[in-house]
Amino acid sequence: MNIYIDFDDCLCETARYFSDLVYELFRKYVPYENIKFFNLQKSFSLTDEQYEYLMLEGHRPERLLAYEETPGSSEIVNQWLDKGYHVSIITGRPYSSYTTSRTWLDQHGFERVEMYCLNKYGRDTFIKNSDFNLELDDYYKMHFDYAIEDSPSAFKFFNHLPELKVLVFNRPWNRDCEFPNDGYRHCTDWEMINELVTFGH
Question: pTM above the 0.85 mark?
Answer without folding.
Answer: yes
